[in-house]
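User: Round two. Same drill as before: sequence, then structure, for each protein.

Assistant: Same drill it is. First protein:
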Amino acid sequence: MNKLPTIYLKRNKEDSLLRFHPWVFSGAVGHINGEPREGDLVCVRSSSGEALGVGHYQQGSIVCRILEFFKEDLPDGFYRQRISEAYRMRRGLGLVSKDNDTYRLVHGEGDFLPGLVADVYGDTAVVQAHSAGMHRDRRLVADAILEAVPEVKNVYYKSEGTLPFRKSFDDIADGYLSGGQSSCLARENGLTFSIDWLRGQKTGFFIDQRENRSLVERYSRGKKVLNMFCYTGGFSVYAMRGGATSVTSVDSSEKAVELVTANMQRNFPDVANHTEVCEDAFRFLDSMAGDYDLVILDPPAFAKHRDAIRNALQGYRRLNAKALEKIRSGGLLFTFSCSQAIDKDMFRLAVFSAAAMTGRRVRILHQLHQPQDHPINIYHPEGEYLKGLVLEVE
């Protein structure tokens, strides 16, 4: 007899689990045997008693995130096995090298560990829990990372801003689970960046734009480049290495402007053709002259929830229309959305509407998405969140 609390589904509500979708929604629950707490392991069964999987329990619309299908409990060494598999895949993709020690080690459902994100910067892994269960298992996760990834010596936990139902726990605090280090220099494709996981956004750096930064580098030679919402300046540094005649980095945050300045000087100590601007993006675009050959729009998520989709789409239309109106003839626009609630068709329609508003001739050269260390579980299409287009504007 299974010792875990058990969720029994309503009749005919097991189809999504039989298709390996890892979420159990509250509307599918018939009844629960036992009294699971936030983050407890629970067994999920069909109405007839068939074991469908084991996962983390949580109150809300998603009541369970499945970790193992068709099992009644987790095997010994579960986290070590899953994280070892994730690390082997990154090594096999060539993401762990002397020139690149910055990569996403665990990408939630994409690595069959729903609710968990772990990014590696040199010898430090930064862990974020997005579920109560991963918060409760954080030390097991840290131990598994230290065992599976030989380069990692420190594990920093950063979940104060990502955990739902914070009132259920009195032990949520960012800090080191192992080791300790206050700052880090990490390598990405041969470039050096200062990563501030203590105070920075997300885990400190937007690793998901690595391949798209390389594409900007490829197109930057001889161009005047504008990087909006620059944050740490990743696109700016790549554009400079690509041979841009000048790079302008814009962000409304003074801290971000300081970071991009430091990262630019770290890679190009004698740089004289980089300009930093601390200003609201829309205000800057309103007042700028139309003399940029390549413009990058990588804003923060405009829609974190479905009820914000309408306003988000208006924001994307307005932002892209301003850039399309001002960019030089023959210029390139790299435009992105990281809002999971906005799918790629919605985003493309918003950019299409922006182009139509300007009346300029626009062609799509590339359709961009998240890189290989942010894999999408084929049974969980919701994991596809990053959308991008490269547009040529006449």
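Second protein:
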Amino acid sequence: MSERARHAVCILSAAAACAQWPLIHWSGLAASPPWIAAFSGLAILGAAFLLSWSAEAAEMDLPQGLSVAILALIAVLPEYAVDMYFAWTAGKDPSYTAFAAANMTGSNRLLIGLGWAAVMVAYWMRGAGREIHLDRGVSPELFTMGVATVYAFALPLKSTLSLIDFAFFIALFGVYAWRTASAEVRAPELEGPAETIGSLPTRLRRLVVAGLFLYSALAIYVAAKPFAEGLIATGKLLKIDEFLLVQWIAPLASEAPEFIVAILFALRGKGNVGLRVLLASKVNQWTLIVGMLPAAFAMSAGSPAPMPLDARQAAEILLTAAQSAFALAVLLNFRFSLKEAFLLAALFITQPFFTSLHARHVYTGIYLLGALAWFISSNTRAGIAQAARCALDFRRN
């Protein structure tokens, strides 16, 4: 089978994964919560793959200034749909506030704790080295991630997500999109099925990309609610903490395509490209999704009241901000090593085994101490100076 034929099979398989959920739902074959969550989650996974491939191919046709914002929105659409459902429902049923916070914090921590580490390990296994070196082109992502992280530390202190937070995060993303749009234009590096879509004649390529966007968006719209409710009901049925189930399982479906794209870049010796893919995704989720939660809550509630955060939700956001601070400190020397990858992964994968509020505070302290240690290390001091120069470049461009 030719490479193009294999890519076509991948695209058709993802499309079939989207189509199976409506058929199963209407036929009544999925009656129990675990099966509802599994089949609707598979539909979201298929849609996420289609969105990822078509978004990459769309870079060939969209104007540079417009593509930054649009493609960023597309990239977080699967995660966005599930989290916005939780936030919208929380406006009418306050018990869903916990699930909105769980999904948001889980997806953000998954990108760094598992995604970055997977890229580094794939790069090392390929024999390309024990370090990934980044260039100054990542300064918009580092700068935006840094500002968002500093601001996020204030959220647990006030125990709310308000429309002021919405305005800040959306404005921050707007500045990021504007600065990125003004950067040097580079031809997109297409891989796999995205490359096959991108190789189509211009008119056909545009029709295929538009069709995949619409098809994927419809699949996500149909599957988001049953997936979210199926996870909650599964937790109750199996006597598993629903908060943890939403936090750890829901993001896997929406994040998988970005992980695979980034890992494929690393396996081809382009570890810097793969890491930047996930760094950009982190920025999108750390601004767009966090910012939209209080907006969805307020619109559903019919008032500008802020979305309240209890002690557990505040602790999860604080932990997520601490992890982001540590990850930022790690990258300030514009290098990411195998040792740092294993450390990030170890801190992440052990968290499900220690779920108490006290344990969350301990992990927060570990991340913050790690960030401090990296900041004061000799290598990072040089990196801080370089990051400062990049911040100046970010402001001037």
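The beta strands are 131-133, 160-161, 307-308, 335-337.

User: Perfect.
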